[in-house]
């Protein structure tokens, strides 16, 4: 008789962003005459830049002719793309990352969710709280989470991000029993806070000392404009021995619908006597057949000098949106984080976060994300995204302020 993976019963009914979309749909159905603005899920609105579109078209055209047609490609991604990524993202002094360390995929969400498959069921997993829900849910599905108690899983270690630590937990927040795997995301989703070199250095030092592993989500690195803030964990010496990094073109170059990401698994990481790179390669080649050729051609164009200039303009557009939201919140006296090296603004509110979510939706037709959706410590906060057209961002910001007061 077929039986279920009972771990799925421990999950909340819907994935956070699915629940938000459902509430937004119901609201639109009930009020078809009102115009909804979403500053909720971080989904881009600007089109792919011209040089990317050109390369995308060329890639499609090549598939139309016998001479240039390509079937299965390398699961890890074409060499031309991996080389372009390594040269652009990992060429800073002292960086040891090479094209061979890079695995091209269709999403940082999938990779950051799937990576835990490589590890034993009984490792101690630490997650920040608040946190991007994928890290927690993937470990729940894998059976590492234990029982649920007061909104938390007993089998996970929670690193609380609070006003006191400015939402950057440190290894000193871990219990004495330690942790084997820690998820870090900077600039952070949801708080928008970026970690300093010293803060990341502390984590790397800890991981090397404890022989633990860091899964570092750098999906928002392109939004860092302060040159003192590291964009990659590999800017910290030793990270190539204890950290895997996830990157994505979703927010960087408008690929949320086109799909392209990459995960860096340095050949220098050894776990239990085995090469982590070889293990991920084994997993990747078994369960994934590579990103489509035209998409990889489009992605490679992002790393050309013209593509870099074009994508920079897109990022600056969203950063300007973020600055507008942040200033408006600051002006009315709300305590906020993020919005400077990040497209997300994390706002402290006077009410619980689902109540304020419902009020903002019902009273002024704007979608934001309730902080509690990212974990218990997110209660009392909301996340506002800068990913929308300027006019809509300005309009929605005014509307939100009407509710927040
Ligand atoms: C978010 O809004 O947090 C992101 O868009 C979700 C994601 O990247 O999967």
3D architecture notes:
This protein is of the alpha/beta class and 405 residues long. It folds into two domains: 6-47 and 307-404, Aspartate Aminotransferase, domain 1 (Alpha-Beta Complex), CATH 3.90.1150.10; 54-305, Aspartate Aminotransferase, domain 2. Helices cover 37% and strands 15% of the residues. The chain has helices at residues 16-30, 50-62, 79-89, 108-114, 133-141, 197-210, 250-253, 276-287, 293-302, 305-331, 353-364, 390-404; strands at residues 37-38, 102-105, 125-129, 148-149, 152-153, 157-160, 181-185, 213-217, 243-248, 261-264, 270-271, 274-275, 336-338, 344-348, 366-367, 369-370, 381-385. Helix 6 (197-210) links the parallel strand 7 (181-185) and strand 8 (213-217). Helix 2 (50-62) packs antiparallel against helix 9 (293-302). The longest helix is centred in the C-terminal third of the chain and has 27 residues, at 305-331. It is globular, with a radius of gyration of 21 Å. The model has no long low-confidence stretch (mean pLDDT 97). The structure holds D-malate.
């Amino acid at each position: 008789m077929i039986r279920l993976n009972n771990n799925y019963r421990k999950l909340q009914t819907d994935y956070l962003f699915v629940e938000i979309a459902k509430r937004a749909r119901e609201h639109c159905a009930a009020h078809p005459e009102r115009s909804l603005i979403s500053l909720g899920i971080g989904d881009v609105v600007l089109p792919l830049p011209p040089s990317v579109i050109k390369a995308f078209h060329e890639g499609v055209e090549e598939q139309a002719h016998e001479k240039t047609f390509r079937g299965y490609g390398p699961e890890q991604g074409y060499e031309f793309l991996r080389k372009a990524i390594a040269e652009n993202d990992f060429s800073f002094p002292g960086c040891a990352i090479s094209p061979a360390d890079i695995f091209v995929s269709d999403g940082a969400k999938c990779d950051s969710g799937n990576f835990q498959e490589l590890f034993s069921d009984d490792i101690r997993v630490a997650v920040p709280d608040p946190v991007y829900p994928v890290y927690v849910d993937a470990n729940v599905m894998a059976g590492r989470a234990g029982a649920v108690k007061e909104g938390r899983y007993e089998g996970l270690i929670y690193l609380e991000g609070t006003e006191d630590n400015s939402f950057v937990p440190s290894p000193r927040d871990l219990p004495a029993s330690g942790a084997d795997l820690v998820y870090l995301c900077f600039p952070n989703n949801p708080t928008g806070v970026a970690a300093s070199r010293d803060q990341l250095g502390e984590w790397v030092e800890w991981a090397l000392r404890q022989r633990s592993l860091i899964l570092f989500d750098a999906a928002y690195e392109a939004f860092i404009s302060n040159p003192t803030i590291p964009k990659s964990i590999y800017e910290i010496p030793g990270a190539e021995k204890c950290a895997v990094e996830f990157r994505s073109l979703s927010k960087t170059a408008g690929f949320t619908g086109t799909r392209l990401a990459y995960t860096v698994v340095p050949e220098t990481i050894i776990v239990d006597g085995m090469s982590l790179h070889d293990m991920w390669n084994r997993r990747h080649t078994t369960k994934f057949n590579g990103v489509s050729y035209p998409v990889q051609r489009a992605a490679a164009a992002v790393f050309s000098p013209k593509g870099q200039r074009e994508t920079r303009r897109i990022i600056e557009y969203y950063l300007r949106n973020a600055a507008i939201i942040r200033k408006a919140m600051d002006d009315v006296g709300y305590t906020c984080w993020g919005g400077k090296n990040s497209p997300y603004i994390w706002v402290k509110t006077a009410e619980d976060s689902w109540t304020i979510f419902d009020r903002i939706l019902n009273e002024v037709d704007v979608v934001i994300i309730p902080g509690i959706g990212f974990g218990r410590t997110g209660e009392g906060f909301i996340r506002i995204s800068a990913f929308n057209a300027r006019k809509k961002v300005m309009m929605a910001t005014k509307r939100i302020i009407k509710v927040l007061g």
